[in-house]
Design goal:
Elements: H1 2-26, E1 28-32, H2 46-49, H3 54-58, H4 71-80, E2 85-91, H5 117-127, E3 131-137, H6 153-172, E4 179-183, H7 191-194, H8 196-206, E5 211-212, E6 222-223, E7 237-242, H9 262-274, E8 278-283, H10 293-309, E9 328-333, E10 336-341, E11 349-352, E12 358-363, E13 371-374, E14 378-382, E15 396-402
Helix pairs in contact: 4-5, 4-10, 6-8, 9-10
The protein binds ligand FHN.
Amino acid sequence: MADEKTKYLAEVARSRPRRMKWWHDSRFGMFVHWGLYSQLGRHEWAMHLECIEKDDYAKLADTWRPKRRPMRDWARLAKKAGMKYMVMTTKHHEGFCLWDTKQTDFNAVRRGPKRDLVREYVEACREFGLKIGFYYSLMDWHHPDGAICAKDEAARRRFVDFTHGCVRELMSNYGRIDILWYDVSWPLKTPEQWESLKMNKMARSLQPHIIINDRSQLDEDFSTPEGEVKAAAEGRGWEACMTFNDTSWGYMPSAASDGVSARDILKMLRTAAGSQGNLLLNIGPTPDGSVPSEAVEPLTTVGKWLQTNGEAVYGRVDRCALGCSACGQCSQKSKTVYFWCRNWPGTELPLGGYVTKLEKASFLAGGNPIKFEQSKYRLILKGLPRTSPDKLAGVTVIKLEFKAKPKFVGGATTMVI
Ligand code: FHN
């Protein structure tokens, strides 16, 4: 097994740069949590949090009546928001499969919806030109072996066969799939118990270009910080997944007032772009599949902002180690630094620590040049408007083009010994 694993890891590492270029360049995706729990509107963990008996919870399978093709609304909004890919829950912890599976009758074709919701999702993504991700929860509260598999080898065998069977169907029956997003590998404690190597080899044999996250107990292609936009080690792909309301991934109207603003989203996006990471921002559609109302305006505004500032976000970026002023922070592409100014200083913006010659300063949106003065450690942008030119979210990006990849000496006049 060690040789097989070593060989697999080497092959996956070799192909990773080519497989993941589009993903890195994309920067920004939409996460979608939609399932039986959406009918309750009290968090996707409601069955667990409220100790609902399995048979009582399963009744939700026959009351769920999604409207026709709601995924087109999600995909249309994602596109409008400047998102380049989508990841949807095909099966969450509740165990209800949103696709036409042979593994269990607890699925959207045999029960309530009477439709293959995954097929509708895939078709919507393709219609709107979005790359396609499948979220799959390894943890399963409905399957009879979903918990006992940790203590009973026969149950583990059955549950692992069920799990691999589900993944095989998802990788076989819906055309080209771009991302496999595993979640919560409870209760089995090792990749050997899940037989993750065999499962992921199978997935990759069916979808050779696919990108797999780090939640099947193998590191695979990228890390998944959650609830905070925090960079992984240099050279490791990472994607921060974030709720829209800091509480629930599934529909939860009572949390709507905590929804993020366009400005909040841009702060997350800047952190991702500044550290070579991605942002996967979640929406929890209503029971019938409608986009939650609190998500529409912020995402639409971010999309408008990206139309004129996308150069600072998309494509290959460097890890921006440049400190910035209290007025904002940066993303960087080699000799070019994008200063995302959130706190507009008025007619002058002093930046300390840049010791490389600046050749040009301009507003990224529109390209108008900016006057500047540069001394050994100080760069002063002058003749600025009194208020932030960006009226969408108050985040104005200033493009700084240096003679070479900029060197930065933070605290040059105070803390350099
Ligand atoms: O328990 C899940 C949760 O419901 C949600 O799906 C998130 C998304 O990353 N993953 C698990 C918590 O880490």
